[in-house]
Amino acid sequence: MINRIVEQVQNLFGVSRLEKIPKVILPEVHKINPRYVSAFAVSICEKLQNAGYEAFIVGGAVRDLLIGHKPKDFDVVTDATPEQIKRVTKRAIIIGRRFRLVHVIRRAERIEVSTFRALNEEGIQKDSNGRVIQDNVFGEQYEDAARRDFTANALYYDPISQEVLDYHNGIADIEKKRLRMIGDPKERYREDPVRILRAIRISSKLGFEIDKKTAAPIRAMGKFLSAVPEARLLDETLKIFTSGASLKCVDELAHYGISPDLPVLGLLIQAKDNLMVRKALDRCDARIQRGLSVSAYFIFAVLLWSRLKETFSKLPQEIPPSKRWKEAIEEVCENPITRGIQRRYIEDVSEVWRLQTRFERRTGLNPFRVFDHPRFRAAYDFLLLRASCEEVPHELADWWTAFESALDDEKEEMIREMERKVRTERGSNRTASNRLVKDSSKPVDQEAEAKVQRRTTKEANPKKQEKTTIREMSVPTEKRTRFRSNHLKRTRQKSALLSKRR
Predict the structure, then answer these.
(1) Which residue of the set 73, 184, 192, 251 is catalytic?
(2) In angstroms, rounded to a whole number, what is the distance separating the alpha carbons of residues 480 and 461?
(3) What topology does CATH give the domain 180-296?
(4) Going by CATH, does the domain composed of 304-405 fall within 3.40.50.2300?
(5) Is 149 noted as a catalytic residue in this protein?
(6) Which pLDDT does position 16 carry in this prediction?
(7) Does residue 398 have an active-site annotation?
(8) CA distance 278 to 240
(9) Which candidate in 64, 79, 144, 149 is catalytic?
(10) Predicted structure pTM score
């Protein structure tokens, strides 16, 4: 039986010898900083070990710890079955059909706990393309190591003894900055085509070079991505956005000729030379590298922006612009190009787009309402991006930058100043219109012309503009005062909340 399993492994993974005994790397050699390790992940390993099971932190978290990065996510692997894991840990949920896993939850943190996978191919179900669709056969740790994708991800860290177990010379590959597939790359890509995207993302993120044998089949194997569920493709797309090297990932995907079946990922690859898309990805990478977060819907809004403008221009011109804009947004959000994107992201994208036209109205209560909108920050960043691409005047972006940082009294004064400017411009337009009427051959109503001239002169007079009261503005005094009071209250609540978080 054992010999048959070994033979299957040799055929399946293209290895001549299966390593059953790992290299043990001691703490003084690997120099992992324990402070970078999730205390929750450590507690799960400790509980499982106290219950008589083996438990290790595994995968990308160990790789990141070895190169001195603080991992965002931690995965734990054990010889306990999902049911046993659930009994030992609290707040555990068994999930998955393809691979049965356990999510252990504590407040906002979630640790994925899996069981060692076996190499026995008899228990693995595959589709016609060779993609693994179900695999719930459990085995030994050395088998689990051979089942992992890259050598750099097949490392096991025991947070209790602080030792690292290495079955496939993963540490040596990390030191050489090389990403190498375990086994035959063709077969491994066929088993799970998402490994193609993962190889490009990990190498771009860490500055690694993909091993020649690992890179060789990527172009030919890209066609198998069409069989991958949209949810998995979207998940990998979001990881590309938040990798801190999204711009390089896009260039590499284009280099290998990858054209996945997920429209938004295909659009990302096609738009690699689009100035606005490249600037957005560059800014997102800079935020990630500074330790800040990035909203996925912001990237989706950028990717679909050109489609929105195209749709808007094709709608009948007799429709009022505001209604046309709304219809264009609805049409793009319902377009098949958004297939695979979760509805919550689509709703956020539409809000960012709607706020773009509201930025142009800087009078009355609109600036305060826009400023208090939940998506103001993302929409404001989108406005700055548009200004950097010469889509909107820099004056508009600068005004909102000043408004965002101004005190409430200063905000009020900025709005008054804008209202005075609007009235002056309207007065100038009326004067120009009156001149055209005067020069035409049509008879002119002298009394009506005199009234228009007096009103225009009054509005254009800067001294009289100084005396304009709030009551004379477009919004009643009581309503403006009430709104300003509510705005101040919300601002103080936000400040108090931020201070508490600090």
Answers:
(1) 73
(2) 25
(3) cca-adding enzyme, domain 2 (1.10.3090)
(4) no
(5) yes
(6) 41
(7) no
(8) 14
(9) 149
(10) 0.77
